[in-house]
């Protein structure tokens, strides 16, 4: 059995950041990656995917954004190139293509990791496999006609890869809203089942909203100080886009341009889909968040006495006249359904008593109650940026320093 001081499970940005700091402190370690380093970025993004946060927030340890457009938004190929250059700089000790099937306590102390490539042992383990593992596809999908092509958002690549015909996108979070826009811009007939995701402005009062929020200290708020506390981890991300230099995503404007909007998908009867009558409420709630964020920026500008363009209030450009309660699949010519309703975590391979009733690991800033077991790269592990390029370095440094203080 190969033995290491520390094993990192997962070779995305979190696992790579952990390896960076472990090397800084000469800690003997190994990264186990189920597929290929940065696998998710390489395989689970559509062709026109780009960052929704500006490039300056790409701040992996020792590897800030190297380009000439800090306020732009890197596209998929540029993101992969950025990660590949980080991998080349870190040179992590890694075994790719190795899936951990079970992580448990080892008799005598430490941990044992069982994999298809043999067993490993470690004194300490950092689980850096992220929090988005199992695509959510409802059981309703089983009853759709066999002629309908069904994809999860992670499988979508481009409009041309889909069969001819109309497309139903289910879910309006970041992926759903951007995929609906991608299809819409390509001239496809799009039907969108709207969820409860909030939205925010791309630019407001002279600069990117992300720049304002960073200046206001929002990205430094830790989960314990957030008004929702740990409940913020369940929040859906705001929809906005960095496409074509960045812009708002306004579902109401999509509707003006011909996209068909519905409330939450509720069921299927024969060949007819049923939707909840909550479209107006969902759009209003998203707009309220949009205006509330802008109002917080207004207050900050006023308090600081800053010179900035005048404030504004978003006013709806379209209102649904009643809710579309149903959609006949055949009459609408639906050929494809894209499920954009997220993922669930799957830590079933971690055979240790650290999870809550939702299957989410209990921890304080990534430190669990099991000595030597850590989690890294989860959404809101510590701050908003914990699962992102902007904040994972801070979390990785903290965990490695804790690991050094705690090791036998």
TrEMBL record:
Gene3D superfamilies: FAD/NAD(P)-binding domain
InterPro entries named among the record's database cross-references: Auxin_biosynth/cation_transpt, CHP04046_FMN-dependent, FAD/NAD-bd_sf
Keywords recorded for this protein, A-Z: Oxidoreductase
Superkingdom of origin: Bacteria
Coiled-coil region(s): none
NCBIfam families: MSMEG_0569_nitr (TIGR04046)
Protein's name in the database: MSMEG_0569 family flavin-dependent oxidoreductase
């Amino acid at each position: 059995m190969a033995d290491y001081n520390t094993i990192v499970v997962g070779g995305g940005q979190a696992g790579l950041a952990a390896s960076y700091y472990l090397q800084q402190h000469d800690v003997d370690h190994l990264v186990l990656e189920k597929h290929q380093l940065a696998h998710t970025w390489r395989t689970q993004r559509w062709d026109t995917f780009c960052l929704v946060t500006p490039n300056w927030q790409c701040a992996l340890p020792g590897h800030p954004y190297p380009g000439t457009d800090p306020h732009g938004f890197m596209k998929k190929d540029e993101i992969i190139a950025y990660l590949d250059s980080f991998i080349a700089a870190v040179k992590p000790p890694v075994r790719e293509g190795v899936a951990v099937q079970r992580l448990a306590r080892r008799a005598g102390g430490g941990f044992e990791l069982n994999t298809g490539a043999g067993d490993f042992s470690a004194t300490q383990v950092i689980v850096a496999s992220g929090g988005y593992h199992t695509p959510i596809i409802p059981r309703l999908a089983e009853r759709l006609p066999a002629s309908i092509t069904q994809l999860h958002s992670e499988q979508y690549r481009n409009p041309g890869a889909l069969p001819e015909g109309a497309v139903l996108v289910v879910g309006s979070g970041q992926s759903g809203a951007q995929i609906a826009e991608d299809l819409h811009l390509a001239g496809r007939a799009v039907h969108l089942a709207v969820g409860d995701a909030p939205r925010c402005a791309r630019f407001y009062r002279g600069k990117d909203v992300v720049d304002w929020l960073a200046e206001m200290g929002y990205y430094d708020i830790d989960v314990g100080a957030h008004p929702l506390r740990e409940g913020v981890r369940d929040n859906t991300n705001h929809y906005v886009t960095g496409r074509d230099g960045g812009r708002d995503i306004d579902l109401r404007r999509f509707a003006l341009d011909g996209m068909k909007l519905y409330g939450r998908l509720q069921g299927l009867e024969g060949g007819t889909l049923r939707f909840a009558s909550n479209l107006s409420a969902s759009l209003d709630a998203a707009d309220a968040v949009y205006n509330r964020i802008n109002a917080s920026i207004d207050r900050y500008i006023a308090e600081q006495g800053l010179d900035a363009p005048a404030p504004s209030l978003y006013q709806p450009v379209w209102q649904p006249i009643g809710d579309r309660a149903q959609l006949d699949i055949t009459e609408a010519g639906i050929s494809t359904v894209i499920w954009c309703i997220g993922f669930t975590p799957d830590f079933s391979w971690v055979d240790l008593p650290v999870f809550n009733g939702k299957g989410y690991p209990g921890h304080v800033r990534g430190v669990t109650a099991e000595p030597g077991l850590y989690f890294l790269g989860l959404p809101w592990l510590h701050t908003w940026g914990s699962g992102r390029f902007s904040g994972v370095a801070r979390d990785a440094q903290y965990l490695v320093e804790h690991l050094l203080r705690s090791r036998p």
